[in-house]
Amino acid sequence: MRDHTPNFTMHELSAENRALISTTLQQLLEKLAADGKLTADSLLEFWVEVPGVKRTRGTFRGGFLMPDSFVYLSDYFLPDTTTLTPTAAYGEADMPLQQAWGDLLDEFYYQVEIFTSPVSVPKGVTLELWAGSRHRPEGEWIYAVDRKIELR
To answer: Superkingdom of the source (predicted)?
Structure first.
């Protein structure tokens, strides 16, 4: 059996890029919740554009574009609320909202670091972020809020 794991060195995001991503995600998810669209199947999806790296984006069988990665928001926040409320799993934490955010950001940073590792300096790398719900299996967004940020 052949190992298909890419051979690369992980590059940690800088403190500045972590802060930029954190602020952007907070704005995105607060907007999603405030609009009453944070549901049990809400996703946080992202695509990464690396300068000088040309690649076609993959598609699922239904023909819609496949994100580089995604996170189920209901793993961290209760659905069907208009404010970000941590799930019951965080009920024992001292500061449950901060713990839920910390876990979400740790997972998200790790995934972004994987997809940005082909470049040694992330300057110019662009993240396209969406939060919302897709219609399955067609893949069209039922509702989404989006942001695009460039790492520094």
So the answer is: Bacteria
- The closest alpha carbon to 142, from 58, 76, 64, 68, belongs to 64
For the chain, the domains span 15-150
**What is the number of other CB atoms lying within 10 angstroms of the CB of residue 78?**
18
Strand partners, 146: 130
Helix (H) or strand (E) holding 144: strand 141-150
User: Nearest to residue 107, comparing CAs of 18, 32, 23, 29?
Assistant: 18
In whole angstroms, what is the distance from residue 40 CA to residue 92 CA?
22
Instruction: Please tell me the pTM assigned to this model.
Output: 0.86
Give tens-digit pLDDT for 105-114.
999 999 998 8
Residue 74 · residue 41 · CB < 8 Å: yes
